[in-house]
Amino acid sequence: MEEFSNPPTSEVPKLSDVAALAGVSTATVSRCLNMPDRVSKKTLKSVMDAIDELGYSPNYSARALAAGRTNTIGAIIPTMENAIFARGIQAFQEELQNNGCTLLVASSSYRPDLEEDQIRTLTARGADALLLIGYDRDPQIYEFLEKRRIPTVLTWAADRTGKHLSIGFDNRNAMKALANEVIAKGHRTLGYISAETATNDRARERVEGVWDAMRAADIDPASLRLVETTYSIENGEAAFEKLMADDNPPTAVMCGNDVLAVGALRAATAQNLRVPEDVAITGFDDIELASVAPIPLTTVHVPHRRMGQLAAQALIDTLNGLKPESVELPTSICRRNTL
Asked: N or C: where does the chain have the smaller number of CB atoms within 10 Å of the terminal CB?
């Protein structure tokens, strides 16, 4: 006959407290939690009722110690202030959940030093693997992750070195394709609103893509009017005003993402400029904001959800001992009303 624990007395309920209230052994409670199909419906109901009454939560730390894995994946994104990363991270989380994993998210505010601290903190707290945005970071960080044997996937960019697992797209060629269309519309005097390019590989490659298109059209890349700022609608608005204050203002303003482009649209409206008749404006990312802007925005569509799904699958496969390959996803141009 099974021996049962004494009535629950602890402030924080334990497995033994659940067993005592349900009138079963601790082994039966464990089976109900881990293999519910192997216990009777009556027993399962008794145990789950006891869990609800006590507010019991399983000790995942103890499980992780025994298994050598926490089933927790970390993701560090540059910002949570706009929707640039929302779709991809949502799909990433959904795929992790389908595989029994939990997501922890941190924001680096586009600061390399803060991202490094977050990488170390998440790994110290037991993250099995990490999703990172882009590849521009101190090589010592990659060395740290390799020594700790923390699988990492780089997203929102394609790693050309082949050193790192990446699920992303070619920022340079994607922006070059859009710039080709801008130039084909007859625009030769171009402006560009970008994030800071020194430590942001995605922003830098998008600017390089515009330069590539200008060279191909025999336009001097040095003539590109470039304004660098941080991502926000207000900063996009201010950058557009700066560009248009020039004695020879651009006839087309390309933006490093849709958030900046919507700011540029707002500034154009305030200056009574017709878009695209007086000035063309383009974005990048194709977030929801682009299609609901006062003038629907011509932009580059990024397959955010597919990227998030494949990134999660790649990390799960790596944790299971497989060696997934990097994937470069295609982008496309969304032709709307601003070009």
From this structure: N
* Extended strands (E) in 175-258: 190-194, 225-228, 252-255
Q: What radius of gyration do the chain's Cα atoms show?
A: 26
Q: Which pair of tokens denotes residue 175?
A: 């922006």
Report if residue 337 sits inside a domain.
no
For 278-295, the pLDDT digits (tens) are 999 999 999 999 999 999
Closest of 171, 203, 84, 76 to residue 132, by C-alpha: 76
pLDDT digits (tens, 9 = 90+) for 194-215: 999 999 999 999 999 999 999 9
Which residues, 6+ apart, have CB-to-CB distance to 332 below 8 Å? 300, 301
One-letter amino acid at 300 equals: V
Please indicate, yes or no, if residue 8 is contained in any of the structural domains. no
The parent domain of residue 24 ranges over 15-58
- Does pTM surpass 0.70? yes
One domain for residues 254 and 165? no
Rounded CA separation 320/138 (Å): 28
Alpha-carbon gap, residue 44 to 34, rounded angstroms:
11
DSSP string across 225-238: EEEE--SSHHHHHH
d(CA 231, CA 260): 6
Tell me how many helices (H) and strands (E) the chain has.
13, 12
Question: Do residues 234 and 281 share a domain?
Answer: yes
